[in-house]
Structure formats: structure tokens, C-alpha cells
Amino acid sequence: MRESAPVPTRAEVRKVLEDLATGAVTRAEASDRARPWIVEDAHRIDDGLVWVALDWLFGADLLTSPAGYLHGPVDFQAWLVEFDARR
Questions:
Q1: At what angle do helices 73-86 and 48-58 cross, to 10 degrees?
Q2: From the centroid of its chain, how far is CA 50?
Q3: Span 3-18, average pLDDT
Q4: Which of 41, 55, 81, 83 has the most crowded CB, counting CB atoms within 10 A?
């Protein structure tokens, strides 16, 4: 992640959560959007809610087996509900 890239806002992170919950983005796309922040720029995120949401998104494509995912649509919706409850 380039130093000049702004830290995602709550609104931006919420949009990705919403898109994941509605199927507008794939698990892999959501994880890819969060990856740079979790892996490279975690130290730049001061907002705890943004950090938690990026962590959820980063784990959206975790596998439990070659054909099974740890998280699914019910989880994605729950993440969005929890995000909104914490705002």
C-alpha cells in the first residue's frame, strides 16, 4: 500500500461489507480489498471499527477444506448488522 493512500473510512468499509452480504462482490474481492491494510498498513488504522471490519473482510475467503468456506452469507449479513450496531 502506498503511503499516500488514505485509510478507508467507515462508509467505505461498510459499503464493502454490504456488497459482500448482497453478493455484489465475491469473497475473494472483499478479502483483496482488505488485504493491503491488514498485511501492510495495519499501523495506520486508528479507528477500531474500521480495523475489525477490515479483519472480517480479509477472512471472508478462508477455506475449511478445498471446497468449503469458513464463512458464508449468514456470517456476512451478521458482520454488516454488527458493524451498524457499533457505529
A1: 180
A2: 9
A3: 90
A4: 83
Q: What is the dihedral of CA 76, 28, 18, 50, to 10 degrees?
A: 90
Place of cell 480495523: 51
Amino acid at residue number 20: L
Query: For residue range 28-76, what is the model confidence (pLDDT) as tens digits?
Result: 999 999 999 999 877 789 999 999 999 999 999 999 999 999 999 999 9
Place of cell 499501523: 43
Residue length of the chain: 87
CB distance 52 to 85 below 8 Å: no
Measured at the alpha carbon of residue 50, what is the angle toward residues 72 and 36, in degrees to the nearest 5? Answer: 80
- pLDDT the model gives residue 81: 98
Q: Which residue has the cell 454490504?
A: 18
